[in-house]
Structures are given as structure tokens and as C-alpha cells.
Amino acid sequence: MRNKLLAAVAAAALCLGTAGLAQAADPVVEKSFYPYKDGVPTNPAIKVGMVINAANVDQAKDALDPAMYQMIKDGWVEIKVGPTTSFDLNKSYVDATEKSYKAVSLGDKPGDIKGYVAGRPFPQEPSLSDSHAGEKIAWNYKYGINYGDGGFIGPFYWTYRNMASGNIERVLKMNFSFLNFMHRVAVAPMPNIAPNPSEMYRGIYAKVLEPQDVADTQLLIHRYEDDTKLDSSWLYLGFQRRVRKLSTGQITDSFLGSDLMIEDFEGYNGKNSDMKWTFKGTRNILTSFYNHNQMELAEEHAEPDYKFVGLMGRGNCFPKVTYQLRKVFEVEAVPADPNHPISKRIMYFDAQTMYATRENIYDRAGKLWKTFIIGKSDPDFHLPINKGTGIAIDDEFSMIDVQAGHCTTGQFKAQMDPALAPASRFAVDGLRSGN
pTM above 0.85? Predict the structure, then answer.
């Protein structure tokens, strides 16, 4: 039995590097990546196993962001509390942080960073007395480990839902691919993929598979190392058989009629220099972190080797998962462009992983417009290919338009395998061939 256990540990270590099983030697890095080493957050009103609903939500108000509190108060959803667990990140990423963070600093203007090599640029605990704390958190998010050096979602179901009636209006079946071209820490080539003459930092590629009227629609985004340089984005429309470059304004339009803008992808899919970032404080709130294989999974869209997270609540707009009480950094992001369709984003970055799993988006009048839930699974309780990666798995999203009474939900089959996201897929010339 002992030999089998050792073999299993060794096999896990081969997959995208080893998850953070050992503690960091540097106390700053250790506090950043292992915040629960000495104990998890507590709240006298929050108990593992309890269900928070309209009847008892007032006692749990301090553990909820304002939008989630109001949705529970209004009877849109009930949430169950699960135990808080440590989502240890990939050891190569932690080691890279430890080696290089002391040389990293902000530049003289938004979008500038100096001395960054790899890992988390600013692992230091943010402080309200630091006027640049919000911007540093934004850099930690940009250079985070979401999908590692490369990953793939397929299939990825987007469902458009009427909250009042519960009717499903449309279902899109898609594939998404992500690839880091620079600052790679775990998968060869490291640290960069070459040649890369444009100094692209990251590529994002999406392809619609169904329904027929939008099948073969493709989106390609090139994000550059220079944060002040505009992203290059292209859309291929299958029915027109042509590629067109997207203007800057189109990233804030509804994407394929959904409740998401391209800028919303992954929580925030824009440049740091496009926003003014203000740190609002550290909080302990309930967020959708859980173990996928321990949830009540759906039969809908089920595959031989995988079942997706289920949905519940008003209009089936909420993930059927447990919520953990976790340490988060609250950050306000205000667009630099006065013509932007939103006035601000209030983002809750998980302190351990730096993922933005809760977010509230306000319209230009300052009223709550949309609220975003991104579910994260521990990789060791997911597909076998994800075990041992030290990368929390995107598992579900819900973008809820509270003003329109509408939502778009996403159900993921995410795989942390860069082989499924080859560099050739991110070439503009490949769009016509379907990559």
C-alpha cells in the first residue's frame, strides 16, 4: 500500500509541476500562498453544513458581498457552507515568486512594471495605506496561474436563461483555449515560446461548435507584454467566411447575445492600464470554492468520463455547489475611459489563488447591473489530468443581469494540458481553417 501511495504522488508530480506541498522559505511568500497554514477564517454566524437562506441571511451578512446578500434576501437562491480548504498552487509558480519578487516594482505610469520575471509579482500583504495596492493586486491577477502555462475547455456550454420564467433561450457549445507565450514556469519551453516577435504575453482562442447558425464562429485575442499596447482581437464569422479585426469598443459589447462582454472573460479580460484600481480592504466572505467530485453533479450534457456542475435557484442561474469562507481582497476598478458602459467593477480576489471569483458590475448611473460568480474546484477532485497540477479549475460561471432578470451560465470541462492548446491555434492565419 505504501509503494502504491508513493507511486501516485510521483505521478502527480509529473503533471505540470508539483502542487505546493512544501511551504515557502520566504515568510512573505508563505503568507501569500499559504494563508490558512495556522487556521482558516471564522465567523460566529457561519457553520459548516448550514444553509443560508432568506430567513437567516441577516446574521450572515458580514460574510457575503452586497449583491449575494440581496439575492439570498430576495429568495433567489440558498447557499450551503462547505469547509474552507487550502488550494495549494503549483510549486514551480511559488518557487518562481520566491526567486524574483524582490526585484519587482511598479513603473512611473499605469501599465508599467519593472523587474518582473515569473510567478506572483507582488506577494506582499496589501495595505490601505498603500495608494498602489489595488494596482499591485491587478498585476497579481494578470500574471496569475489561471490555466497554468496552457489549458483547454471543451466542451464549454453557455446557456442563456430567463430568470423569471426559467426558460432556456439558447445553448452554445464551444471550445476555449489559453496559452502563455511568456513567463512560463512549468511546461517547456520556458520561460518563453519563441519566436515571438510581437512579444505576445497570452493568447485566448474560442470556437463555437453549436448551434448551426453560429457554428464555426471564432474569437482570437492576443494580449501583449506591454500592458499599454492595445490587445489585437479578431472574429471569424463562419457564415460570412471572413476574418475581421475587432475595434476597442467591441470588447464591451454583448458577446454573441450573452450577458457577457469580452472584457468580462475570466473575471476581467482587459489591460491593467484601462482601469484605476483601488484596494478597499481585506475581508472573509463566502465564495464558490469546492471539490467538483463531491458536488451533486448534473446529468445534462454528461459525458462518459465527466459530469458538469448542476444549477439551481431563480431561473437556474446559480451553481449547485458549496461555498467556502475565504480571505479575499476587495478592489474597485474604475474605467479610465469616461465612455465605458460601466462605472465600476467591485472585484473580490481570493487571497490565496488571486482569482476573481466574485464580482459586482455597476452601470454608468452607479446602480448594480450584473453580478458574476465563477466556481473553482480543487484540481485533485476533478478530472485525472488535472490532479497534482496546483491550478484551481474553472468549473462554472453565472453572469446575472439583475436589471434585466436574465443570466448566462457556463459549464466547463477544463483540462490543464498545454498539448490541447498548441501555439499554432493562436495564429490569425489559422482562423479560416478552423484551427
Answer: yes
